[in-house]
Amino acid sequence: MTTPSQTVGPFFGYALPYQSGPEVVPGWRPDAIRVRGRVLDGAGEPVPDALLEIWQADETGEIPRRPGGIARAGHGFSGFGRCGTDTDGGYWFRTVKPGATGDGAPYIAVLVFARGLLKPVFTRLYFPEDEAAHGRDPLLGEVPAERRGTLVAEREGEREYRFDIHLQGERETVFLGF
């Protein structure tokens, strides 16, 4: 018999976030970018106790395969970050823009844990300047054209992107089933 899933949270502030979790790379790196946004519920209200994880390739498209996600020592790149949301549903990561890992467009995999969810939801963050590559991306090709925009971050400056995640509602982000 399978054990049923249970809802998670709100417990993230106790054990899962860690101080340098959002800092996938140190700020002194010249290729560092900032990704920020908010997690919003179906009514457009902030979710103040969600937890986000990101997983990504490095700037050359290489997927890190070594330990050290938490103990980066300010130099390594693990491809992993974790950030809890604040009272306004806000989150941020300092990372690098990933390179493509095949024929598709560069992306960051995003997992969202939040109260009311039985399991985390999975999505992807794509970059607006890679529009030409979006057309050949196998996953984006499966998403209806009118919904693809929910997977593309907005550029907010030379090295900053905004990616709001809507858990439900009219502007719901596309989530992936595994």
From TrEMBL:
Respond yes or no to whether keyword Methyltransferase is given for this record: no
Under the heading Gene3D superfamilies, the entry gives: Aromatic compound dioxygenase
Q: EC number(s)? A: 1.13.11.3
Q: Where is the Intradiol ring-cleavage dioxygenases domain?
A: 32-142
One annotated GO molecular function is: ferric iron binding
- Known InterPro entries for this protein? Intradiol_dOase_C, Intradiol_dOase_core, Intradiol_RC_Dioxygenase, Protocat_dOase_a
Q: SUPFAM superfamilies from the xrefs? A: Aromatic compound dioxygenase
- Spell out the Pfam families in the cross-references: Dioxygenase_C
- Recite the UniProt keywords alphabetically: Dioxygenase, Oxidoreductase
Query: Which CDD domains does the entry mention?
Result: 3_4-PCD_alpha
Tell whether Oxidoreductase is among the UniProt keywords.
yes
**What sections of the protein cross the membrane?**
none
Family as reported in the entry's similarity comment: Belongs to the intradiol ring-cleavage dioxygenase family.
Name under which the protein is recorded:
Protocatechuate 3,4-dioxygenase subunit alpha
The organism is Actinomadura rubrisoli
Q: Which gene encodes it?
A: pcaG
